[in-house]
Specification:
The protein has 313 residues and is of the alpha/beta class. The protein contains 15 helices and 7 strands. Helix content is 51%, strand content 14%.
């Protein structure tokens, strides 16, 4: 660790004080406002089927539902792929057990790919709408617009993606910060995210050791003179975290990077580090640039990037 840089930045007098401030400024969540719903994704998914959804509006409170449904899918087969979405399902082939009470009941597969349906398939589609409740939905619910309904479905589906966003929440927090630093400070870096180190060799002609080629980086900074900075980010809420293994793994990552002439910055946070001052100390001693989000927000990341790029601040 470049302790003099940290001591000067925070105007501290001892290494212990750096450990203390790192520990005492840990946060219990890394969720930003963008964590909850990816509205751009919802908008894109709804717009993708805008015409088809307007066609399906004709089924709302339709008195002759079955025949109208058959007419629509026959004359506008492009509506077929939208039907599973009405049930919050993205698969175009849906398998259903006809009757769980019957040990000999068959499994039927409904195919919603765009195509011309046979008479038998049209009859099976009517059964599908009846038994899944879609027919009742169109005839009796107070839905005024299928497009509005699908927007709600997409929001619901997107909440299932929160589990993935939980793992990526630190990336969502850090990405706009580093983009802003590079832009505002006019740093000579190209930023790549979630790329394998092989990408450096394939797209920039930068030599990378075989041990790193197939490893993935959260962020790669590629300087105009071939400088490489790998920034890794993570958040530990406390459940299942093993601080010693975590610190050791990033010490090893840094050693590999140094062997290639690359710099390393590690941004980590979360209450999983609470009470782990010995491991925080080890990370601060053995890793050049360990940061938590407080350090980042105070401007230390900006100072480090400028220092690496030999830009005065």
């Amino acid at each position: 660790m470049y302790s003099s840089l940290y001591l000067d930045f925070f105007k501290l007098e001892s290494f212990d004080a750096i450990v203390d401030i790192f520990h005492d400024t840990l946060i219990d969540t890394n969720r930003g406002y963008q964590f909850f719903v990816d509205w751009q994704k919802v908008k894109q998914n709804v717009e993708k089927y805008r015409v088809e959804l307007h066609i399906l509006n004709s089924l709302i409170r339709c008195p002759d539902f079955d025949s109208t449904l058959c007419y629509l899918v026959t004359n506008y087969p492009e509506v077929l792929p939208v039907i599973p979405l009405l049930l919050a399902v993205r698969d175009l082939q849906i398998k259903v057990v006809k009757d769980f009470m019957d040990a000999d009941s068959d499994t039927v597969t409904y195919d919603f790919r765009k195509r011309k349906l046979s008479q038998k398939e049209l009859e099976e589609l009517i059964i599908f709408f009846e038994r899944t409740g879609l027919k009742d939905f169109f005839q009796n619910f107070s839905c005024q617009s299928i497009q509005d309904y699908i927007a709600g479905v997409e929001v619901g589906l997107d909440t299932h993606a929160r589990k993935n966003r939980s793992g990526k929440a630190m990336e969502l927090v850090v990405d706009p910060i580093i983009q802003d630093i590079v832009k505002q400070r006019k740093l000579p870096f190209q930023i790549e995210s979630q790329k394998y180190f092989r990408y450096l060799s394939d797209h920039y002609g930068i030599s990378v050791s075989s041990s790193l080629l197939n490893r993935k980086a959260d962020f790669l900074f590629i300087g105009d003179k071939g400088e490489i900075i790998n920034i890794e980010v993570n958040f530990f809420s406390g459940t299942g975290s093993k601080p010693q293994e975590i610190v050791d793994s990033y010490i090893n990552r840094q050693n590999e990077l140094h062997g290639n002439g690359f710099d390393f910055i590690w941004i980590t946070d979360g209450l999983g580090w609470k009470g782990q001052k010995n491991q925080i100390r080890k990370g601060l001693e053995m890793i050049d640039y360990p940061l938590n989000l407080h350090f980042v927000r105070k401007g230390l990341l900006e100072r480090i990037l400028c220092q690496i790029s030999s830009t005065s601040i």
